[in-house]
């Protein structure tokens, strides 16, 4: 089990006095994580210090502006592959069942695809299994990281660390598809209204699915060994 996932989850949590009190311990855990390149470790320490020492309301406003108001930076993983479609609900149910199979029960107000929740779950697993599951979301993590990099946001270090911890690199085709999506600007209210327009809900069998996202859920609920181990077992 790794404390690094829990530390990164804390960095991606809404800043409060309670979370800020825990950040020095989180930064220390990440400082010793040798799988993360040194420049990213230094950037993580700087981010933790900035969140701890900055004005709390300014830190909260920055967090909300980035991750709550900017849809292309949403911390809800399945939103990037399903949007608000019915398929996202089905994928979250499958992920919730995975959590329950490992003994994790979420509170009523927690979404299973919320990245900090997912990272907390990974922190309870053996390292090889956790790294493999994280790798299934590499394309989403890298897309968010690249968008944060364009904004010169210090939060990009968290996604650089997650990419380093993942067992598998991002699928090039899936990443290109995500990067082709509009990178919304919260200052553009007219565009934001269009992006956040409610998607019509359809009932019955879905006519259009998301093969990459379905494969991700299937992988999470299937053999927990990483891809390389599965390939070796079937060779």
Helix and strand layout, with pairings?
Elements: H1 3-11, H2 17-31, H3 38-53, H4 56-68, H5 79-82, H6 86-101, H7 115-122, H8 127-135, H9 138-150, H10 156-165, H11 172-179, H12 189-195, H13 211-221, H14 227-234
Helix pairs in contact: 1-2, 1-7, 2-3, 3-10, 6-13, 9-10, 9-11
Secondary structure class reads mainly alpha
Computed over alpha carbons, the radius of gyration is 18 Å
Largest sheet: none
Count of distinct strands = 0
Helix content: 55-70%
Strand content: under 5%
Q: Give the CA-based shape.
A: globular
Which runs of at least 5 residues are low in confidence (pLDDT < 50)?
A: 198-217, 219-235
Tally of individual domains: 1
Helix count, DSSP H or I runs of 4 or more residues: 14
Order of helices and strands: HHHHHHHHHHHHHH
Mean pLDDT value:
82
Span of the ends, CA to CA: 29 Å
């Amino acid at each position: 089990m790794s404390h690094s996932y829990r530390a990164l989850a804390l960095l991606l949590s809404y800043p409060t006095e309670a979370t800020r009190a825990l950040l020095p311990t989180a930064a220390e855990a990440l400082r010793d994580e040798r799988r993360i390149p040194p420049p990213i470790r230094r950037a993580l320490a700087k981010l933790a210090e900035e969140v701890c020492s900055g004005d709390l309301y300014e830190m909260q406003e920055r967090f909300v502006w980035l991750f709550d108001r900017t849809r292309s930076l949403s911390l809800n993983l399945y939103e990037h592959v399903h949007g608000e479609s019915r398929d996202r609900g089905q994928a979250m149910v499958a992920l919730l069942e995975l959590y329950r199979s490992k003994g994790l029960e979420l509170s009523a107000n927690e979404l299973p695809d919320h990245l900090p929740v997912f990272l907390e779950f990974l922190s309870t697993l053996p390292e090889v299994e956790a790294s493999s599951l994280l790798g299934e979301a590499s394309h989403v993590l890298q897309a968010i990281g690249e968008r944060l990099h364009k904004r010169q946001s210090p939060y990009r270090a968290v996604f650089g660390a997650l990419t380093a911890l993942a067992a598998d690199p991002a699928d090039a085709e899936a990443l290109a598809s995500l990067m082709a999506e509009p990178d919304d600007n919260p200052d553009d209210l007219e565009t934001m209204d269009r992006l956040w327009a409610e998607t019509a809900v359809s009932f019955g069998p879905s006519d259009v699915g998301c093969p990459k996202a379905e494969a991700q859920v299937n992988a999470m609920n299937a053999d927990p060994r990483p891809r390389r181990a599965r390939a070796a077992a079937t060779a």
